[in-house]
Amino acid sequence: MADAWKEAMELAEKTARRAGECGVVCAALQVERSVMTKSCSVDLVTQTDQQVEQLIIQSVRDKFPTHRFIGEESVAAGEPCVLTDEPTWIIDPIDGTTNFVHAFPFVAVSIGFSVNKQVEVGVVFSCLEDKMYTARRGGGAFCNGQRLQVSSQEDIQQAMVCTEFGSSRDPEVVEKIFCSLRAVLSIPTHGVRGAGTAAINMCLVASGCVEAYYEIGIHVWDIAAGALLVTEAGGVLMDVQGGPVDLMSRRVLAANSPALAERLLQEIHSFCPIRDDAAPSL
Ligand code: LIP
């Protein structure tokens, strides 16, 4: 198996680079992007998202014809979002689509590879920064080949935290997001940031630039790869109410340490979006 997963890692890295580099994502940033919407008027998608997802799926199928897929745009088109024990590729072709639409410079290709419902390989390619983040379960986390380690800061008052505002404009959801933001800022923390992509936010935790990241409303494809980056860099993952993270629950808290995570989750006003594996389609 180890050799097969090594091949999976090489393929994920090669495909993410091919998708993200001048070939597709960066090239598309040079021309006008036609924008469509999915679940609501601020949940955006472009032809490039769809094109990149097909490119990744085809590359994987050529090498591993029996493997399964959970891809953001395939699910949006009606494919089921079910994680089984079978080898499964969990793909976000462009994490940070809203950034991509506005040419805001944080855009990632995110590829997770799971077996027995456990993520074995995680690759996040931050296209415009030319940063290739890779992790293999039990093998550490890396950025452009340099080993990553989470921050050692355990004092929440010295911490910087990432979060996002998401794509729901439901007044109750917006209220919860702002209550959490106010509480986290008021601890006080050093600051709150958001790159506009869950995958890159998680890579920032893995890199030690921020101590934690939390979000409610993300999807399994946004976080599958980043989750492995965090744990392989020495960090922890939790649900926003404590307890183990469930990748399908659309809730995540990633942090450098259990102590900081536990402190932060006291400030998060949680809610339960419809699970990825319960939604008919996006
Ligand atoms: C996005 C996430 C982001 C979140 C957005 C969205 P997409 O993914 O990475 O953190 O706030 O709601 O889910 O749609 O750009 O792949």
TrEMBL record:
Subcellular location: Cytoplasm
Cofactor(s) the protein requires to work: Mg(2+)
Keywords in alphabetical order: Cytoplasm, Hydrolase, Lithium, Magnesium, Metal-binding
Domain of life where this protein originates: Eukaryota
One BP term from GO: inositol metabolic process
Reactions catalysed according to its record: adenosine 2'-phosphate + H2O = adenosine + phosphate; 1D-myo-inositol 4-phosphate + H2O = myo-inositol + phosphate; 1D-myo-inositol 5-phosphate + H2O = myo-inositol + phosphate; 1D-myo-inositol 1-phosphate + H2O = myo-inositol + phosphate
CDD domains cross-referenced by the UniProt entry: IMPase (cd01639)
Oligomeric and partner information: Homodimer.
Family (UniProt): Belongs to the inositol monophosphatase superfamily.
UniProt-recorded name of the protein: Inositol-1-monophosphatase
Originating species: Champsocephalus esox
